[in-house]
Amino acid sequence: MARNRNFDYEALLEEERLILAATEAIHRLMGDEGVNRTELARRIGASKGHITQLLDGSRNMTLRTLSRMLRAVGHRAIIETEPLSHRASSPKPLQTHKIHGYICLTRAQNDAEMAERLDTIRATHRSVLLSPETSFDIDEEFTELLAGAA
């Protein structure tokens, strides 16, 4: 019975590792391509909420959906495999969904810090450097950028 539990734990760990790798890759590519969740949803014909659920790991992502998301940011997947390494010093069982949640929370905090910095820059540009017309144009651009960070 203990052997079966170890197998289940390792299977779960591998599933979470793959989910995390896929979602992190998509997040990175979205940032590189300047695509926010709303735009990604539009490109693949889904709702923003669905994209959020896929990227935070709370909804199962099919290979078809992964392919569509990658294509929407100008990329495709290449599958590689490697042998499992079973070490005697393998880590103790973890609640991997909590780890994934922590990573998502950290990402959200980083996004919030970026938004705060952009607000400071916006205020500086508006009050010191720009005419009211130019300030309004930049204000719109920053609003769009902040929407993408959310």
How would you sum up this structure, described in words?
This protein has helices at 2-33, 37-44, 48-55, 63-72, 96-129, 132-149. It is mainly α and 150 residues long. Helix 2 packs across helix 3 (48-55) and helix 5 (96-129) packs antiparallel against helix 6. The N and C termini lie far apart (45 Å). The mean pLDDT is 75.
Task: Please describe the structure with a list of short key phrases separated by commas or semicolons.
single chain, 150 residues, mainly alpha, 434 Repressor (Amino-terminal Domain), 2 domains, 6 helices
Short description:
Helices cover 73% and strands 0% of the residues.
Question: What count of structural domains?
Answer: 2
Query: What is the CATH architecture annotation of the largest domain?
Result: Orthogonal Bundle
Q: What quaternary form is this?
A: single chain
In the CATH hierarchy, what is the superfamily of the largest domain?
A: lambda repressor-like DNA-binding domains
- The strand count comes to 0
| Helix and strand sequence | HHHHHH
The CATH topology of the largest domain: 434 Repressor (Amino-terminal Domain)
Helix content: over 70%
Largest sheet: none
Q: What is the CATH C level class of the largest domain, in words?
A: Mainly Alpha
Q: Which band does the percent of strand residues land in?
A: under 5%
- How many helical stretches? 6
Radius of gyration: 20 Å
> What do the pLDDT scores average to?
75
Runs in which pLDDT lies below 50 for 5 or more consecutive residues are none
- Give the N-to-C terminal Cα separation: 45 Å
